[in-house]
Specification:
Layout (H helix, E strand, L loop, with lengths): L3 H49 L10 H9 L13 H5 L6 H14 L1
Length: 110
């Protein structure tokens, strides 16, 4: 039969082991989460790169907006990045609806 002192020591050892194993598990889970987040960010970056290299025709914009963008030599989606509302307002055949449509596209997709 074990004495109270021996039982207390045994309980303390088990408690320490559980504490350490929990700490190790938390660190491993954190590393796995960080790795998963990094992989998701890499995928998102690749998808964005692919989107930026697409032709402006693939942007699902109205014909009027597409024609106005082509008139100012916007051929690829990446060419939309530097365009501001003020720049678009100065473009011929660029109405308020087209400007709004293009700015919404930039906001939601870029």
């Amino acid at each position: 039969m074990k004495t109270d002192y021996e039982l207390k020591i045994e309980i303390k050892v088990y408690k320490d082991l559980l504490s350490r194993s929990g700490s190790i598990a938390r660190r491993r889970i954190k590393r796995l989460q960080d790795k998963a987040i990094d992989e998701l960010l890499d995928i998102a970056d690749k998808e964005k790169e692919l989107l930026l290299e697409k032709w402006i025709n693939d942007a699902n914009l109205s014909v009027r907006s597409l024609n106005a963008l082509k008139a100012i030599n916007v051929d690829k989606i990446k060419d939309l990045i530097p365009l501001t509302e003020d720049v678009l307002r100065q473009c011929r055949n660029m109405g308020e609806k087209s400007i709004k449509e293009i700015m919404e596209f930039k906001k939601n997709r870029l």
